[in-house]
Amino acid sequence: VQLQAFGGGLVQAGGSLRLSCAASASIVTVNAMYWYRQAPGKQRELVAAITRGGSTNYADSVKGRFTISRDIAKRSVYLQMNSLKPEDTAVYYCSADLCYWGQGTQVTVSS
Hints:
Elements (H helix, E strand, L loop, with lengths): L2 E4 L2 E4 L4 E7 L8 E7 L6 E7 L4 E3 L7 E6 L4 E6 L8 E7 L3 E2 L3 E6 L1
Parallel strand pairs: 2-11
Antiparallel strand pairs: 1-3, 3-8, 4-5, 4-9, 5-6, 7-8, 9-10, 9-11
């Protein structure tokens, strides 16, 4: 499965962005889809996950601000990011079952 993440950009603090991750094949059989992020000088960290059954999980730092969703018919997973903070600045990656990874999309939040 090839994944392509897009939708990043530069936004002011308090703003919103919606990231998309498009898969080259069906994601029906994928156990879970993830969004991770990596800020400069830091380790990659989990942002959000959605299981095959639709259950979601979020990092404490984004709970209440970010929402992960998916559209199986469109082979896509999304990350709606609201109330963005400068500390959300990172390269965001999508993953299928932590086996397949997209190329990353840069999110920069200015203060």
